[in-house]
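Project standup — Tuesday

K.O.: blocked on the structure for the chain from last sprint. Re-posting the sequence here as requested.
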Amino acid sequence: MEPLIPFNKPYMTGKELFNIAEAHFNGMLAGDGPFTKKCQASLEELTGTRKALLTHSCTAALEMAALLCDVQSGDAVIMPSYTFVSTANAFVLRGARPIFVDIQEETLNIDPSKIEAALTPQTRGIVAVHYAGAVCDMAPILEVARSHGLWVIEDAAQGIMSSYRGCAAGTLGDMGTLSFHETKNIISGEGGALLVNRADLIERAEIIREKGTNRSQFFRGAVDKYTWCDLGSSYLPGELTAAFLWAQLSECGGITHRRLALWGRYHEAFEPLESRGKCRRPVIPRDCVHNAHLYYLLLEDLEQRTRFIDWMRGGGIQTVFHYVPLHSAPYVEHCGWTNRPLPVTESVADRIVRLPLWLGLEPLQQRVIDRVLSFFSS
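H.V.: unblocked you, prediction finished:
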């Protein structure tokens, strides 16, 4: 019997455990050790951000962003409904209400043309979520934000090594967030980073990350003692996590190259299906360079997707879907928030299916392709 092909399989470069042992040998296991500093410097070089701060998750980075925006009770923040719950939670925890707008059929990213109509006097900011590593159309989003004095936060959890008009994902807004969860391209098990793109936010970001203290300034010798200065929490990761991540960041170019090859092979194989109207493949806008974070197909409807997933499972291949749109979630109903219909979001959520894409899939990928093709020919 052929082995199961899982949807995801975490990749290791081979240097992770050596780095972890070195961190232990150095006697530095808490946060902000040598590996953390290497990772932050690498992210700053890769992206061009003013300051990269490692966090224990992308969720933590989003919570830091909400604090830096001074989001208050009664504020509103615009975002897509088609995203992970952390995007909304970070702002709801500060008392704000998420205002969900629809996505584009082509990219599954927030539709910039829908933002203006969703603005109210309470609107504090816009969160742009870069789905599947294809960066949102940021120019019109930034234009709306500038004209209304709004913050722009990029949820680039899936976007490392992607870019828009030559700018790295996460560096176009006031702040950006990255994820290094085991399902992402560059991983550390759990982990994330906040990209701070404004010089005037850096000092406060460091304070918020260190439990609201000026500890970072103390270790730089800028103050003779550190103390409680602001709101904050323990957002930094342990040094073992950073040691693992450093091995991944050191090979991020090669990792991305291999993922793009897998993505391209899928894309070429399924072109005839799209030409015959059997499904729709991902669309990468001309302004974007993507990172092959995931490969999806849009099917006809929920019933066909259910049959497709069952068919693939019957061939020993795991395929999945996401997300359940946030505007239809039980918590939104519990809070009594009313939201306008989001027809594209609702349609996409019923029709999308994601295929396995991980390093090591290369010798097994043709089996996935053949099984997909057989579904549409059966």
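K.O.: great, moving the ticket to review. The chain has two domains: 16-249, 252-377. The mean pLDDT is 96.
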